[in-house]
Amino acid sequence: MFNVQDDVAALAGEVLHPLIEKQGKDVVLYLHSYAGFPGSAAIKGLSKTERLAAGKRGGILGLVYQSAFIPKPGDTLLQMIGGTYAPWQDPNTQTGLVGVIDPKATFYADVMEPLATKAADRIRPQSFLSFNTALSQTFCGIPAYNDRRTYLHTNQDQGLPPFAQDAFVAGSGVKWDVQKLVTSHSPFLSEPKQLAAIVVANVKAFVATY
Questions:
Q1: pTM for the complete prediction?
Q2: For residue 173, what are the CA distances in angstroms to 41, 103, 142?
């Protein structure tokens, strides 16, 4: 079973390092939902500011968290959802996996058919270990990302309620540009054109800070 550290290693080793270290690309990192957890650690040393100071090409220009967790060192995913599994989750102690009882209602409530059903059919269980493994370090709060952090708040979200998103932002201890979307958990499926325009605007804003 994979834990959070495995996901950190996968995101850093298979996505970020090839783009930044090998190809020298500038990247805006978009993290959705659980991805905020491993993503907050996988960005270690990869900000554009840090790499410019070291005379290196490429780097992360800014961060976009969409209805995502914002963990601090020592946090576990289970702690951040209140210490117990959500009513829509289905933990199975025999398999060590946590499923979703009704993924269409939870994640795709405002997505049109047949896309909602297709997306729901692709949801797979998540390991207990991913809920119970703490991060020792996180880096979304470092000064390199000051004025380069956006939080896309989905205020019709059935999976990660708006009050939880508010708490994540407030508890992070750093400033975020909070932009609110009138969507459920997956605006990239329900409102792709609107979301694309928002992301492009944020990319331009990040680029303008260098």
A1: 0.96
A2: 16, 32, 11
